[in-house]
Design a protein that fits this description.
With about 475 residues, this protein is of the alpha+beta class. The chain contains 15 helices and 18 strands.
Length: about 475
């Protein structure tokens, strides 16, 4: 009987360990990854190459071209999409990274394709420089970020591909191309190419002087935020929203450049990671019984301190990036024209609530400036991006959430994030991206044998 006294503690420790396993990042510091972010896409290591030179990269691609084989380039594995999965040769750039040079007159930096954004952030900071904008995570490589139109937030700031002024690319024939903004159609296709034009060995991007950001957060209702949408989104440099669909509450983040030189009032990383571990344990437990998720999420949002108000100042990349671990989850992202923000969000919430979809994560909402890049979700329009996340041990739950959300927003011609989960038909892609036919023409020119295609891309895009 005495052993029973330790049963509650034992159960707590087991659940805590389970939660901890859900926040330990699968991304490797060195070497190519074995899986993608949620462990559902496995990276082929049976035929993998990791050259350390430009010549080595060219050789791998040229040999593949001559022998009729296929190549996919893999970054760090920070993806929920099979776009980088290889059924033949896997090419990793983890040995081909680092800064090539800085042009302070043009405020540009040239880096090798395998360089992680986190590494670039630290390098630029030491040089008194900074990225103009960033997303919530900096685990990705610079080449992968650009290839999938990875983004931050700010209605007057484009996605990362808009920062590109030049790149070096190895085509499907194994030929080296140096592209600039004067390279016409090939450059427009290469800015966001999902790795279908070639291997980006070097990229040149615009940067800015090092700067600090002041971030202020507030807690309100979803309807309260939508009632002042224009004032909030247009009133700060960078605005994002974390919202919970069942409680109807949200946390609004507003960040602006600050003249304060010293960081202040930043969260304690250890404490935040402990909170995330506990939260991870909570969502893993409630995910076992999907029908309790709606009420359980209302409870954690109301009593768990998930949303809070604060004001802090730090160097820009530390404010752009989430300062703590993120629980393991599946992720998709829907992109609508900015003018549809309120209607689309209400339809998304209605779909989830009315169908009791067991969504146990927040939805992140961000805003991005329009551009003219052919495969960019922002092509021709300012956008609102809804990042959808969910954890479930049951097959089909994540797919049902994402597919249902896509159907709910279909009337807004919702586009998607290339690096996250999506299921579309070729007809749908050609309709959503008006310049896709032009992209297909350039892709055929740069990769006539389809060296850089995999089964997923062929099925989804019709190549």
């Amino acid at each position: 009987m005495s052993a029973l006294r330790y049963l509650p503690l034992s159960v707590f420790l087991v659940v805590l360990a389970w939660g901890l396993s859900g926040v330990l990042s699968p991304l490797r510091e060195e070497g190519p990854p074995y899986t993608n972010e949620d462990g559902k896409v496995f990276i082929n290591h049976s035929s993998i190459f990791a050259p350390s030179t430009r010549e080595g990269i060219v050789e791998v691609v040229r040999n593949a071209y001559l022998s009729g084989r296929r190549v996919r380039v893999v970054g760090t594995g920070h993806s929920w999409s099979p776009v980088s999965q290889s059924q033949d040769i896997t090419l990793s750039l983890w040995r081909y990274r680092g800064v090539v040079g800085i042009n302070r007159e043009k405020m540009e930096v040239t880096v090798r394709g395998g360089t992680r954004l986190s590494q670039l952030n630290e390098y630029l900071d030491k040089e008194g420089l900074a990225m103009i904008n960033l997303g919530s995570i900096s685990d990705q490589t610079i080449a992968g970020s650009i290839a999938t139109a990875t983004h931050g937030t700010g209605i007057t700031y484009g996605n990362l591909a808009t920062l590109v002024t030049g790149m070096e690319l190895v085509s499907g024939k194994g030929e080296l191309h140096v592209l600039t903004q004067d390279s016409g159609d090939v450059f427009k296709a290469a800015q966001v190419s999902v790795g279908m034009l070639g291997v980006v060995t070097e990229v040149t991007i615009r940067v800015t002087e090092r700067f600090n950001l002041e971030e202020t957060t507030s807690v309100t209702t979803i309807e309260g935020f939508l009632s002042n949408l224009e004032g909030s989104v247009g009133g700060s440099d960078h605005v994002k929203v974390w919202l919970e669909l069942y409680s109807g509450l949200c946390q609004v983040f507003e960040a602006n450049r600050s003249m304060e030189e010293q960081p202040r009032d930043n969260p304690n990383t250890l404490i935040e990671n402990i909170k995330v571990t506990l939260y991870s344990s909570y969502i893993r437990v409630i995910s076992l019984v999907p029908f309790i998720v709606p009420q359980a999420m209302k409870a954690i949002i109301k009593y768990g301190g998930v949303f809070n108000s604060h004001n802090r100042v730090d160097v820009s990349y530390r404010v752009f990036n989430i300062p703590f671990l993120v629980p393991t989850h599946s992720e998709a992202e829907l992109v609508v024209a900015y003018e549809h923000t309120a209607a689309a969000l209400r339809d998304l919430r209605r779909h989830v609530v009315e169908n009791s979809v067991p969504v146990n994560f927040i939805v992140e909402v961000r805003f991005v400036e329009a551009d003219d890049i052919w495969l960019s979700p922002e092509y021709g329009m300012k956008t609102t991006r809804f990042t959808l996340c969910i954890y479930s041990p049951w097959d089909g739950v994540a797919d049902n959430y994402f597919n249902g959300a896509f159907e709910a927003l279909k009337k807004y011609n919702a586009r998607f994030h290339w690096g996250k989960q999506f299921h579309v038909s070729p007809d749908c892609v050609w309709e959503l991206f008006p310049r896709f036919e032009d992209f297909a023409r350039v892709r055929q020119l740069m990769d006539p044998k389809g060296v850089f295609l995999n089964y997923f891309l062929k099925d989804s895009l019709g190549f």
